[in-house]
Amino acid sequence: MGTDLDNDWDGYHSKVWDTYTGDVLHSFPHQHIVRGCDFSGDGTRIVTGGMEKKLRIFDLNREDTTGQPLLSCDAHSSVIRNVVWDGARNMILSSGDSMEIKVWDPRTLNPMHTCKMDGPVTSMDLSADGHYITSTSGKSVYFWDAQTYTLRNHVKTEHDVSAVSLHPSHSRFVAGGTSDLWVRIYDFESGRELEVYKGHHGPVHTVSYSPDGELYATGSEDGTIRLWQTTPGKRYGLWQGDGTEDA
User: Fold this and answer.
1) Per-residue pLDDT tens for 60-82?
2) Strands 80-86, 54-59: parallel, antiparallel or unpaired by DSSP?
3) Residue 93: left (phi > 0), alpha (psi -120 to 50), or beta?
4) What per-residue confidence (pLDDT) applies to 238?
5) What span, in angstroms and rounded, lies between the C-alpha atoms of 247 and 245?
6) Which residues pair with 195 in a beta bridge?
7) All domains of the chain, ordered by start, with CATH?
């Protein structure tokens, strides 16, 4: 479903939008704020989680208009802030203030695994190649094997971390935080801080490497998204004008 996008911040609904027209294709009611949602691997379902501490799965091909979920469960003891549908393994990941990542079978919403952490989970995602589950809590960054759900690496930084992205080569990762305005690069194996950059005027809430690893993007409370070169000064891309206007 490449033309669709879910939006989980409109009141107590999870909505699916057509990215070409901006039309709302589906709207699923909830009883409280939805904090996270994701598509299934085949794009036919979505999973949601939020302030209700529940997981819900909705069928996008269902013809009835009641908006009732296919499945739902009481998933966590605290707020759910992050939801990921691992399409490669057909598993659902959820996390939040309850200090753990839970893995669910989407066919039944039965719990399959639990990854314990030392504090509330501020972010969680899959690496671009699907090999790692990345998560953050306080000043710590965790990398879990996405196949076995065992802890592969635990990096303790000196700063609060709110978002992390692993480079496609698995050699380094970029991290942003809410306690300062800096973007930091760390070595994956040793956890050593390699580079520090400042460009935002507000806390950094999200970071992501490009698929080729040549760029990474950062999003901040200052209302901007910035693109950074992984290797500063290296030529990247070519943009050529048509010669009719001055550059």
Assistant:
1) 998 776 789 999 999 999 999 99
2) unpaired
3) beta
4) 55
5) 6
6) 185
7) 1-118 (2.130.10.10), 122-239 (2.130.10.10)
